[in-house]
Amino acid sequence: TAAPAATGPRRSTRGRETQVVPGGGGGGTEGARGRARPDPRGSAGPGPASERLPRAFSKGFSSTFTGERRPKGDRIFEALGATDELSSAIGLAGEFSSEKGHTFVEQLHKVQCMLQDVGSNIATPLSSAREAHLKRTSFSEKPVLELEQWIDSYSEQLPPLRAFILPSGGKSSAALHFSRAVCRRAERCVVPLVQAGEADPNVAKYLNRLSDYLFVLARYAAMKEGKEEKIYVKPEP
Questions:
Q1: Mean pLDDT computed over every residue of the chain
Q2: pLDDT tens-place string over residues 138-149
Q3: Contact assessment for residue 119 and residue 136, using Cβ atoms and an 8 Å cutoff
């Protein structure tokens, strides 16, 4: 007969202080989107919940990769959250596109990997970064140039744009349009960081070109699937 499972207080991980750290990655720019790492000072144990929550959590603070403590509402964490949402939106678009057999799905996967590196750079504010941090989280112009090549390649295959297009054209296209909108928001979050000297300008450039890429790709997906793109029609007065 199997021994009964041990009982007793469960050690909760909720409420532990977190620090944003870049994850490992193979090839290219090292570093990935900031992950939450438990702080050993925040180990939970028996006792009332109010006693187990570390002060850093109750006061709404978190740490960057450089170890700097900032409020969770700081612009850096806003930008990290927007970048994470963008990667999730692109992942959804990639799944819809994969079901239709689109070959650009591999490009979308590469973009998601690059967004991990974007997050690493954002999580490493230049004002508090040391040389070791910068080596791990630098972001070059090479990915920006690659996006521009992809944009040119797809644009050459598309009919001229003669009207304002509404997000439409099938699930793949609509999801890519949604990703584009999220990308523009991520860019708006990153630009103030670049202007303040906290993030690499290439990160903002990448997001700017990425939104254009997603727009062109949405049109391309609709064309390949034979779906109609809905256009803006001015309502009659």
A1: 80
A2: 899 999 999 999
A3: no
Task: Please give the Cα distance from 176 to 162 (Å, whole number).
Answer: 20
For residue 125, report the phi and psi dihedrals to the nearest 5 degrees. Answer: -55, 130
The pLDDT, as a whole number, for residue 153 is 97
Contacts of 40 (CB under 8 A, 6+ apart): none
Q: Which residues, in sequence order, are CB contacts of 228 under 8 Å at separation 6+? A: 168, 169, 222
80 near 125, Cβ under 8 Å? no
pTM of the model: 0.76
Which letter does DSSP use for residue 167 in this model? S
C-alpha–C-alpha distance, residues 197 and 75, integer Å = 13
CB 34 within 8 A of CB 80: yes
Residue 170: pLDDT band (50, 70, 90) is: very high
Instruction: Specify the residue for token string 């584009």.
Output: 180
C-alpha angle 140-107-187 in degrees, rounded to nearest 5? 50
CA atoms of 134 and 120, how far apart (whole Å): 10
Residue 72 has pLDDT above 70, yes or no: yes
- The whole-angstrom separation of Cα 124 and Cα 232 is 42
Residue 200: name the closest of 145, 146, 123, 107 by CA: 123
Contacting residues for 209 by C-beta, under 8 A, at least 6 apart: 144, 147, 148, 151
Tokens for 120? Answer: 């690493």
d(CA 63, CA 72): 9
Query: Is residue 59 classed as helix, strand or coil in its secondary structure?
Result: coil
Q: Which of 51-55, 93-97, 199-203 has the lowest mean pLDDT?
A: 51-55
